[in-house]
Amino acid sequence: MAGATTAQRGTSDRSGRGGKKRPGPSKPPKPPKSSKGSGPRGPGARARRVPVLASLAAAVLLAGGGTWALYGSSWLRVEKVTASGTEVLTPEQVLTAAAVPVGAPLVSVDTDEIASRLRGRLPRIDSVDVVRSWPHGIGLKVTERKPVLLIKKEAEFVEVDATGVRFDTVGRAPSGVPVLELAAEHSPSARRFDEQRLLREAVGIAGSLPAAIAKETLQVKVRSYDSVLLQLTKGRTVVWGSGELGEAKGRALTALLKAAPKADHFDVSVPTAPAVSGS
After folding, report:
1. Hey, which of 15, 29, 65, 192 would disulfide with 19, CB 3.0 to 4.6 Å?
2. How far is CA 192 from CA 29, 71, 188, 225, 242, in A?
3. Is the pLDDT of residue 72 over 60?
4. Is the pLDDT reported for residue 216 higher than 60?
5. Residue 180: burial class (beta carbons within 10 Å; 0-12, 13-18, 19+)
């Protein structure tokens, strides 16, 4: 009996303590499992991709269409070539020398090559601007060299510009451009200053003359580096000296010509002390 009583107590104790289980601490809910892959899937994602693909396709089509319009179509091709700025040259001479490929796509025309070709074939051209005139034109804007001095060569004249470039030979001397006379064979400075150096000196002097005096200068006579004479119209002569202080000498000569219009000999070799003589 005692054993039975003990067993009952044990059972009673267990049911009294834990007939009902005590609730434990609550666990946080598990997050939903993500699907494989980094981006969202489904109809929404596919819908977002469609405009992007359409934009890319449109860009490719536009690029291809633009390339075709520039190179493959007949819309933007060279149909007309014009020349401007000529004085001695004619527009026809410029157009012939330029040899612009009429009918070629306007975008493919090599403007630098055309400019180089023009300067090589026509040395009178100092510079040229080759411009595209959309949709069908090419314009050639020419600047010609200006002669400041002439070198007599038998019955012809070689034109020399302000940089010393001999760019053309003409049968008739252009008006207002003096003729060079080199007479420095017996000059003590002939070994030091050769003909080319004296030519540059004469070109510098002719280029520095005031416009009004340049028009009246018939001849530039170089006897040595520091002995240059100018022969003006009406039998007037000018002792210029060397090529140094050209601007000051030009101002002094301009003043002398106004102050003594009937004089026939002027000396501006020292521009701060010019002299005049003759009546």
Report:
1. 15
2. 106, 60, 9, 9, 15
3. no
4. yes
5. buried
